[in-house]
Every structure is written in C-alpha cells, then in structure tokens.
C-alpha cells in the first residue's frame, strides 16, 4: 500500500511495520499544527491472516485531529482526535492539517486503486476545514 498526497508526497507502507506520518516524517510542511509524529499507520493482515489486506489501521498521536473521507461518495468526513483509532481502505483520503490542508490518498502499491470519487464529485474542493475547531470534534455541516 502507498500513501500519495496532492503535493506529490509518497509513503510506502510495509506489512507488519508501523509507519509514522507527520511534519518531516513523510510530510513536507512547516505547519506547526502538524506534529512530527502526527499519526501512526499499519497495514492490516487479511481475515485469514496469511495475506495483507487493503486496509490500514491508524492512531492519532498528535495534538490536532486527522480528517478522513471515505472513497465512497455517500460517506461523511470524520475527525479523529488524539489517541483515537480508525481504519482506512484503498481509495480513502485523509488530511492532517487544518491550516494548510493537503489531502492524501491510500492506494494499492501496484498502481491499481479502488474506484474513488474525484474531488469535484465528492465536494472536497468546496470544503474549508480551517474553520473547524479541533477541540469540538465532528461538527461538520454538509
């Protein structure tokens, strides 16, 4: 699996290894709201335990939230705060900065991704997350 940002940033995820993602660790930003170790990511094993799935578990380690949007058009955006955990799948997107938002896609490494909705169709191009209070959490208006 691979994480690819709108800014061209790429980070490969290896099976059984926790990857740290944050300012200077896979993310090239000077935004101080992004911690150096903002979120940990780990490729999940498949149900049988013999292969690796297309799902990645994560835990927010930084002080500020991580926003996640499913690749399915009918899903709402969720915010995960410090110590909260979740899962993302191929085609899902996440953002770690409210001040300088850059969206990252989770993709299969072989270049094949699940069908995901483009920014125009999903409405991501019209979302301004800079006004969202990270302390109050998931109070999104659609």
Automatic annotation (TrEMBL):
This is FHA domain-containing protein.
